[in-house]
Amino acid sequence: MSVAPVTSTLVAFPDRRVVTPREASAHIGIAPGSLNRLRLLRCGPNRIVTGHDTLYRIEDLDAFKAALLVEVGLDPATCRPAAKGDDTPVVLPFMQLLIRRRIVRRIILLGLWSALGLGTLSTLILF
């Protein structure tokens, strides 16, 4: 009796396009390293993980970008994307600042929760 190997395939839906992390960072207008930091801190756009691959849906990227702009009081409908002349990813300085702000806020929040957890743990151990 032989067992057939299990393989997974990604099913593409006609109206839902998925992109790689490099394409996703270009779509948002940030550096690929910034997108990776957002993924590690779990404060970035929703992603699809298939095995070792990470993919992003265009709808999720647009929603994430709109949420960033609304967070600082801008209307996403009035913001225009940069013109693409070639295949090099366009890094928008304003989006980089918004991403950096979100990363710093997340790190501060994690630090405060860690300090609270360590303080509670040390109190329980000592008393």
Account of the 3D structure:
- Keywords: Membrane, Transmembrane, Transmembrane helix.
- The chain crosses the membrane at residues 107-126.
- The chain is 52% helix and 8% strand.
- A 3-stranded antiparallel beta sheet has the order 1-3-2.
- By secondary structure, it is mainly alpha-helical.
- The mean pLDDT is 82.
- A hairpin with a 2-residue loop joins strand 2 (48-50) and strand 3.
Question: What kind of sheet is the major sheet?
Answer: 3 strands, antiparallel
| Structural class by helix and strand composition | mainly alpha
The number of helical elements comes to 4
**What's the total count of β strands?**
3
Share in β-strands: 5-15%
Regions with little confidence, pLDDT below 50 for 5+ residues = none
**Rounded average pLDDT:** 82
The global form is: flat
Distance N terminus to C terminus? 61 Å
Which strand order does the major sheet show?
1-3-2
Helix content: 40-55%
Number of domains: 1
Order of helices and strands: EHHEEHH
Q: C-alpha Rg, in Å? A: 19 Å
Tell me which oligomeric state these chains represent.
single chain
